Amino acid sequence: MNNRLYVGNLAYSVRDESLHQQFSQFGSVTSAKVMMERDTGRSKGFGFVEMGSDSEAQDAINGLNGRSVDGRALTVNVARPMEARPSFGGGADRGGYRGGRY
Question: Fewer beta carbons within 10 Å, N or C terminal of the chain?
Fold first, then answer.
């Protein structure tokens, strides 16, 4: 198993510290990070928590997955590796009008 967890369906008011506190009741929390919108600074509604061990991570999943926090049922599971985003190429032609004379 992996001790890095995905936490979804977070209330937009949740911040790193409160996420850390929620998970600390199941063991040592190495890190807790709520993902934020770059432009607005608003929460994206999900985050990641790294627990001290695999068994603590499993305890956190068992204790928090589906539990209502701030009126929202949390989704807690083992985080998957980030998938590569599709590349849309590069090159000189990036769209725009190409017909007619210049």
Answer: C
